[in-house]
């Protein structure tokens, strides 16, 4: 099984009135369209983990997440597709969400850790009882993070570049994407190696350690982080929902509120503030996450 090759995400022009007024061009790379089930940046983050698990002959995959987790959803779907059993360690107490129902339908063993139990995930010894319970299974850090996750995202850059000529571009100025842990952004920064700037719209508050995580993975240059969380991860307000609705109507591109919607709204703010000079060509990364939308819209 070749886990390292993924379907090509389509790149197409993104036309919005506030981009046109500022003379900024944008194209959107649709990771939401690579697969009906294993969607978005999470599959790229899983590539190397799946290959490692396969090489090690691991019978299954274990990871952690919340009750709307795009990461666990992609993991459960990938496990089913490629013949790995899966176990998910979930934050909080048993809840019935559309995502959790999918996890169970996809055959994932779901364990609820409570809040305290979930907070212990960084402690030494956290994995030990799970490794005893699921011997030989491959453990994947929360969100598919770490260097293996970042390296898996390098392919995103190649996927965009092969399609530039198709939209009449010979080059681009920079990337714009939603950031949670910063792993995907780190992957783009690594792959670009300074060739193009990477702008991250932070979907989580600035004190969540994202800057530190990115800095540990790739150092301090080649990227910029912008606040986009609007008061907290999972905080949704009327202006945001109205903006998403208007964007979806004029572009036909579906968005969710926690990552992609917030990232585009933050892009509008920066474009209107004149951060990008006329003639800038941006590749906006659609990181997927649409399954999570069932939880709150
Ligand atoms: C997980 C996720 C992100 C954040 O990715 P990181 O690599 O953690 O920064 C962005 N957008 C969507 C839709 C996601 O599901």
UniProtKB/TrEMBL annotation:
<dbReference type="Pfam" id="PF00291">
    <property type="entry name" value="PALP"/>
</dbReference>
<comment type="similarity">
    <text>Belongs to the ACC deaminase/D-cysteine desulfhydrase family.</text>
</comment>
<keyword id="KW-0663">Pyridoxal phosphate</keyword>
<protein>
    <submittedName>
        <fullName>Pyridoxal-phosphate dependent enzyme</fullName>
    </submittedName>
</protein>
<feature type="domain" description="Tryptophan synthase beta chain-like PALP">
    <location>
        <begin position="21"/>
        <end position="288"/>
    </location>
</feature>
<dbReference type="InterPro" id="IPR036052">
    <property type="entry name" value="TrpB-like_PALP_sf"/>
</dbReference>
<dbReference type="InterPro" id="IPR001926">
    <property type="entry name" value="TrpB-like_PALP"/>
</dbReference>
<dbReference type="InterPro" id="IPR027278">
    <property type="entry name" value="ACCD_DCysDesulf"/>
</dbReference>
């Amino acid at each position: 099984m070749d886990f390292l090759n993924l379907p090509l995400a389509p790149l197409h022009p993104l036309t919005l009135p506030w981009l046109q007024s500022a003379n900024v061009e944008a194209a959107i790379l649709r990771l939401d369209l690579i697969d009906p089930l294993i969607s978005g940046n999470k599959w790229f983050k899983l590539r190397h983990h799946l290959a490692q698990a396969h090489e090690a002959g691991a019978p299954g995959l274990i990871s952690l997440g919340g009750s709307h987790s795009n990461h666990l959803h992609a993991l459960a779907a990938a496990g089913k597709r490629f013949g790995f059993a899966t176990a998910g360690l979930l934050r909080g107490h048993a809840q019935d969400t559309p995502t959790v129902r999918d996890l169970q339908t996809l055959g994932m063993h779901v364990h609820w850790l409570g809040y305290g139990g979930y907070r212990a995930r960084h402690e030494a010894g956290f994995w030990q009882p799970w490794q005893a319970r699921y011997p030989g299974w491959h453990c994947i850090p929360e969100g598919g993070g770490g260097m293996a996750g970042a390296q898996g995202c390098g392919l995103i850059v190649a996927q965009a570049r092969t399609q530039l000529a198709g939209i009449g571009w010979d080059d681009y100025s920079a990337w714009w994407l939603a950031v949670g842990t910063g792993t995907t952004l780190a992957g783009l920064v690594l792959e670009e190696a300074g060739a193009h700037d990477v702008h991250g719209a932070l979907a989580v508050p600035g004190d969540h350690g994202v800057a530190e995580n990115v800095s540990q993975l790739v150092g301090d240059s080649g990227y910029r982080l912008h606040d986009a969380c609007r008061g907290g991860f999972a905080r949704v307000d009327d202006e945001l929902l109205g903006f998403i609705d208007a964007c979806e109507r004029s572009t036909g591109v579906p968005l969710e509120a926690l990552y992609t919607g917030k990232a585009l709204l933050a892009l509008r703010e920066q474009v209107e503030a004149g951060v990008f000079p006329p003639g800038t060509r941006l590749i906006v990364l659609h990181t997927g996450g649409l399954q999570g939308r069932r939880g709150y819209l």
